[in-house]
Amino acid sequence: MHLILAFFLCQQDEIEQLKKRVAALEEEIKKSKGQEDEKLKKKVKKLEEDLENTQIELNKLKEKGIEKPSALNLLNPAITVFLNGAARVDSQTVMAGAGAEAAKIDDRMFLRSAEVDFRAAVDPYVDAVLIVALEQEPNQEFGVEVEEGYGVIKRLPVLESAPWGLRIKAGRYRAPLGFSNLLHMHDLPWSTRPQAVVEYLGSESGSSFFEAGYAALGSGILLRPPIFGEAPSSLDLEFHVVRAGQIRIGDESDNDQPAFLGRVGFFTKFADHHTLSAGVSGYFERGNLFAGLLGLEVLYAYKPPGVWNSIVVGGELFFVRREALVEEKDVDTMETVEKERARTPIGGYLFAQYQVSWHVYAGARYDYVQSRQDDDVETHVLAGYVSYYTSEYFRIRAGLEHRWSDVETEDGDTTLLVELNFVFGSHPPEPWWVYR
Q1: 318 and 200 share a domain?
Q2: Which tens digits make up the pLDDT trace of 379-415?
Q3: 263 is a domain residue
Q4: pLDDT tens-digit profile of 374-389?
Q5: pTM over cut 0.85
Q6: Do residues 91 and 59 share a domain?
Q7: Residues 253 and 330 in one domain
């Protein structure tokens, strides 16, 4: 009997021990599950952050007219062809070009540009872009030019990741001096360039009707440091060392010197349907003469849910300082001498656009610019336009512009414009002013 009782007590003790072990195991399982849940939550949060950053990246790429390569074109370049044609009717004679190259451009049609755009991921580290343009000049002749040809190093082979989104850009590319300079002619929301871009950044013909802007030759560093806040936002930093003398305010005779340009850009999305981007950019060159430019830009867009009536409002302002040699008469000797004189012109534009329907966009733009050579000479331009955007492959636009200017040959001109854009080949990115 004692043996049976002892055996029973031993069994009870073993059962209690097993119960304690089971309870401890259950507690351990609960803790482990809690840790796994916490790990899972962290993974979900990281995925949400990556998705948010990806959306910001896509918005920035759309704004800059850049599209990420798909798996089908990783080895072969994506090729897109853009044809831009325009006709104009003027109230008076209009000349473009200088000297012997000057030609009438009023009351006629032009195939302003035919661009072939090549884009490819060269390897996991590098993307490359080549844009070759056949452009019609005011004298009706065509010239071939490399509009852009550059590579972007997305990640250095020695680094596992790109700190602060580090990228290196090298070659010939449209300089980040405002958002409109980054756009090619076929992606503009207007039929002509803003007059300040033509006057300060560049135009071979001196006319806003033909391709204009500044393409830099050099290399730069692009960064996207992390920023804090609940709204999807991004901060972009750029610094470039480029060849001097190629911007219109510069000195062409002294282009063996380096020049420097940079930009700080901010983008945010707020209240679900509103976006705002703003930036400050600058250019500086010091050779025989000094040339500097400070640019301010802002772009706001509103896309209401469920309808296609988007609103886009924006503008740019440029401050220029240009030290140039001018001929003046010495009051004592009455001889003509060269003296260095600083010019400080300003110029800019404002525009607003309303999306009337799925296909139709209507807007207006106002330009103001002081001459880079004489800041007492002013020009004002008021423009209105209507764009019919069937798809990213075909766009048609009608516009009306009137000009007031201290330049007698330009003053009082009214221009009716009709523009056609044809796109074929690989799917192109849509311009930032299009909301579908």
Answers
A1: yes
A2: 999 999 999 999 889 999 999 999 999 999 899 999 9
A3: yes
A4: 899 999 999 999 999 9
A5: no
A6: no
A7: yes
Position 262 confidence tier, pLDDT thresholds 50, 70, 90: very high
Q: Which structural domain, as residue segments, surrounds residue 56?
A: 1-64
Q: For the chain, what is the HEC assignment? A: CHHHHHHHHHHHHHHHHHHHHHHHHHHHHHHHHHHHHHHHHHHHHHHHHHHHHHHHHHHHHHHHCCCCCCHHHCCCCEEEEEEEEEEEEECCCCEECCHHHCEECCCEEEEEEEEEEEEEEEECCEEEEEEEEEEECCCCCEEEEEEEEEEEECCCCCCCCCHHHCEEEEEEEECCCCCHHHCCHHHCCCCCCCHHHHHHHCCCCCCCCCCCCCEEEEEEEEECCCCCCCCCEEEEEEEEEEECCCCCCCCHHHCCCEEEEEEEEEEEEECCCEEEEEEEEEEEEECCCEEEEEEEEEEEEECCCCCCCCEEEEEEEEEEEEEEEEEEECCCCCCEEEEEEEECCEEEEEEEEEECCCCEEEEEEEEEEECCCCCCCEEEEEEEEEEEEEECCEEEEEEEEEEEECCCCCCCCEEEEEEEEEEEECCCCCCCCCCC
The pLDDT of residue 336 is: 67
Of 24, 46, 64, the position where a domain reaches its end is 64
* Contact indicator for 83, 111 with CB cutoff of 8 Å: yes
Q: Which of 41, 64, 87 is the last residue of a domain?
A: 64
Q: 75 and 95, same structural domain?
A: yes
Determine the Cα–Cα distance for residues 279 and 284; give it in Å rounded to an integer: 17
Residue-level pLDDT at 251: 78
Whether 154 is covered by a domain: the verdict is yes
Number of domains into which the chain is organized: 2
Please give the structure tokens belonging to residue 91.
């109230």
Pairing of the two strands 258-270 and 233-243: antiparallel
251 in a domain, yes or no?
yes
My answer on whether 35 and 183 are in the same domain is no
* Residues 111, 52 share a domain: no
